[in-house]
Specification:
Strand order of the largest sheet: 1-2
Structural class: mainly alpha
Number of helices: 4
Largest sheet: 2 strands, antiparallel
Strand content: 5-15%
Distance between the termini: 52 Å
CATH topology: Arc Repressor Mutant, subunit A
Order of helices and strands: HHHHEE
Radius of gyration: 17 Å
CATH class: Mainly Alpha
Length: about 130
């Protein structure tokens, strides 16, 4: 049986992930899927850890690794959906994904919305660029 804690009771320590308001407020992100918004929030959380651990490239840009299997676990989805969700964020300009080759994991560089041009990234309505 689940025990609920009411607001007048002292809550236990709970971790929270911040979800940026601009993902819901700025017109360029209205078509971004909810899975992509959640994944972006998790990427930002990891970026904070990367910053603390000194994970930055030669230009002092923070990067992180987010293996596909961890994305599938987070989003409770299949591999293709996880890949598509990362691509959706990449096409929205919120992530830059750099392949390293030789079996090394891709580096993910998170970006903030102010660094993203005002492009309509979802012209096709499917989160992928029109081809």
């Amino acid at each position: 049986m689940t025990k609920y804690i009411y607001l007048h009771q002292k809550p236990r320590a709970i971790r929270f992930t911040q979800l940026p308001n601009f993902l819901f407020e700025l017109p360029g992100y209205h078509l971004l899927g909810n899975e992509a918004k959640i994944l972006y929030a998790m990427v930002l959380r990891r970026a904070g850890l990367s910053r603390k651990n000194g994970w930055a490239d030669e230009y002092d840009r923070v990067y992180l690794y987010y293996p596909i299997n961890e994305v599938t676990t987070l989003l409770h989805c299949g591999r293709q959906k996880a890949v598509d969700t990362l691509r959706e964020l990449q096409y929205a300009g919120l992530l830059e994904i750099r392949k390293q080759g030789c079996g090394k994991p891709n580096r993910i560089y998170p970006k903030w919305h102010e660094a993203v041009p005002d492009a309509d990234f979802k012209k096709s309505g499917h989160g992928t660029p029109e081809g």
